[in-house]
Amino acid sequence: MNLKRLLLCLLTGYSFAVTPVSAYQELQPPHEYDQVSKELVEMLEGIHYNRPQIDDTISTKAFDYYIDAMDPTKSFFLQSDIDALEKYRYEFDDALRNGDTQVAYTIYNLYLKRFEDRVKSLQADLPDMVKSFDYTIDESLNADPDNQHWATSQAELDDYWRKRLKNRALILKMNGEDEDKIVSVLERRYKNQLKQVDQTNAVDVFQIFANAVTAALDPHTSYFAPRASETFNINMSLSLEGIGAVLQMDDDYTKVVRLVPGGPAATQSELAPNDRIIAVGQEDGPMIDVVGMRLDDVVDMIRGERDTTVRLEITPSKGDTQTSKVIDIVRKKVKLEDQSAKKEIVEVERGGETYKVGVISLPTFYSDFAAIQAGEKDYKSSTRDTKKLIEELQKEDISALILDLRNNGGGSLQEANALAGLFIPSGPTVQIRDQSGRVTPLGDSDPSITYSGPMAVLVNRMSASASEIVAGALQDYGRALILGDQTFGKGTVQVLQELDKGQLKITQAKFYRVSGESTQHKGVMPDIAFPSLIDKESVGESALDNPLPWDKIHETRYPVYWNMPAYLPILTPRHEARMAKDPNFIALNDQIDHFKQQVEKYKTISLNENTRIHQREENEQRDLDRENTRLKALGLEPVASVDDIEASEEDTYAKEASEILLDFIATNQMAQKQAEKQTAQN
Questions:
Q1: Signal peptide: which range, if any (predicted)?
Q2: Where are the domains of the chain?
């Protein structure tokens, strides 16, 4: 559910403990937040894009999100509990409006009771349970949350817990831990989780309740209590040292959402979106289990002084997802220059000639506002840097240009407009519609064009927001071929509003292309698609709950330079023919097929050790065979094990994009000759 994807989810999904715990203390609403509650209703109804009425329709969604935030894995509540709580389904709207949020605390306190009862019933049995596990039995654990139901009896819930614990113990066993170490690790893990739940306070509960309501409106509107607000502001300013990764809670786990371009994690390339962090260590210190920890506490552990090392134990998103590994990342501050535009040249051999295609990689839309305010003339910005690089590439006699916006999550809207203006004369690049229905076009006012030749824009599922504005504008103008994958689909605008306590990030407007089509939900569709390892079912606006819908407004006036769709019947078959013979694309497509099979296969996890070992060996062998087939086709030496596999230095996507651009140039030249011949005949 959506609430699990918000910046902070302050509750764990399940816990064991190995030390006595005191009886839980019921939490009560903090009356100093009564006014904040009323302010939230006023702002949500007054300035949210949809101008919603916080009513029973919102309340019923919020009720489901709230329950899901507390018990996302259905590990504590029984079906009878959910049935008993149904009477509160239509009270969330009134509670928020009236500044009386007792209903949220009544539900939460029942969760606490179930949590404590569960811990007390299992804490003394944990060592014996682990030691009694029989890993030769053929049984399995459901790992698909969409198919998980509330247990109808205590015995059914007990068995579910037994299987979950057995799975965690088996993962540790397969990673080489002996029985005593497994017990020790699990005891420490569940003790930490219990501690985190015990530290949840009344303000935390208010934030979860408020975000259950905001989640019912859209996935990007959220409330930050004072501590969360401070963390949010730190993340936005990038003022602390870290690894350059955006994290979120997903059930009990800290999950990587995306990597900050130019940051340590992105540069090192061992951490990837959707990886789960299960333990964190400092330098040579012990690994601390973070499963079930509050996200802000995990972030605090990952942050640290520059040039120090943080160790992360992760379960990679690609693979069997049941085997962990430890990676080391040296903390750095993500600097503006690390995210700056960069250039390279791809050389393509055709007909005995070598053609040069310039590539400009732009990881974000940036501008050094501090330098601008200080009056510095030579300040850095994505547009100025890109313009300079284009001029340098033109001196090297490039035949075409690629603007690489893969993994570009957005940034300055002003920069996006200005950068699009490097390739078109003055004109609109995006339209913004506010909650009143007023549409404001924005664009480039500079009539000059820095580059007028053939070009393509490379995008993928992680290209979002400002990237989608640029890609959409250049596609609508017929100025560039869009190559790659469907973009993220974030076409909404958020603003921060100060409250009596904390902040509200609220959706206030939507982006529309000059053609009138929204970038929301659907994103920008490529003219020619490339295979991608990013799963669109789990990444993108459409993967979130309650995204605002795609729609369309009136188009604005703009010229069309090339009728790109007319070229696709020629370009696409040639592209597909090359991919069918390219060892890199063949290997990539096999990897994608394997990943899809695994996603379906591991919705049910075997608890038989031999089966799991066989699955792991089978996956490793397939990875090894795939890589050696690729290397052989390229005339390279094979590798002996999966540990020897290294990332290819050649950018397969940029190479193929260059080939497509040369096809476009040749096709366009042929069309011009035919037109000239026809004119001469007439």
A1: 1-17
A2: 32-217, 239-335, 338-562, 583-650
